[in-house]
Design goal:
Helix content: 40-55%
Largest sheet: 2 strands, antiparallel
Order of helices and strands: HHEEHEEHEE
Number of helices: 4
Distance between the termini: 48 Å
Strand content: 5-15%
Radius of gyration: 19 Å
Number of strands: 6
Oligomer: single chain
Length: about 180
């Protein structure tokens, strides 16, 4: 029940990140597309599952922050957590997301909670551009210079992001209706 709950939290974070960058979380690469199943979110979960979810659950158990007393068997419906356990897990989840790491590819300090968003941006960039060679500090964020029709780097705070100016990455029309 505990691991399943944390996987659900991670899945929602990843779905949100994918939608934020304009990708459809229901069209995946590894997991079969099924109605109502966020296949791409499940694909991205595979790389983050051990680091974000499994590690949190094991830490909660090893530190004895969670005990078996907070779980109740509900017949054929499985095992559920009581409200105190759920609250403890959510507090630990939020605390974990605030911790920072050096992103191994961007070589930049980022909060752990932004990792799904960063990975979604990188995936979006690969889909649009087709390669990661241009994803380097100072060149990750691109915007189109309308006068010269070239791509210019843009920095958003301390984190480089992929921004489509005047265009919806999800395939929508730009500001000129094109």
């Amino acid at each position: 029940a505990l691991l399943s709950f944390v996987y659900t939290l991670l899945n929602h974070e990843i779905q949100s990140a994918l939608e934020t960058v304009g990708l459809d979380p229901y069209v995946g690469f590894l997991h079969t597309d099924r109605p109502g199943r966020a296949s791409l979110a499940l694909d991205m979960m595979e790389e983050l599952r051990a680091y974000l979810a499994d590690r949190l659950v094991l830490s909660l158990i090893n530190r004895k922050q969670i005990s078996g007393k907070g779980f109740v068997e509900h017949g054929d419906n499985g095992i559920v957590m009581d409200e105190d356990i759920r609250k403890e897990v959510l507090l630990a989840w939020q605390k974990r997301k605030k911790e920072t790491i050096i992103h191994p590819y961007l070589n930049e300090s980022v909060p752990i909670g932004l990792i799904p968003y960063i990975q979604a941006m990188l995936l979006c960039y690969i889909i649009i551009i087709g390669r990661l060679a241009d994803v380097q500090k100072g060149r990750l964020v691109k915007k189109r210079d309308s006068k010269e029709n070239i791509m210019q780097p843009v920095k958003f705070g301390s984190l480089y992001s992929i921004i489509a100016v005047g265009q919806n990455l999800g395939g929508g029309k730009g500001k000129n209706g094109q």
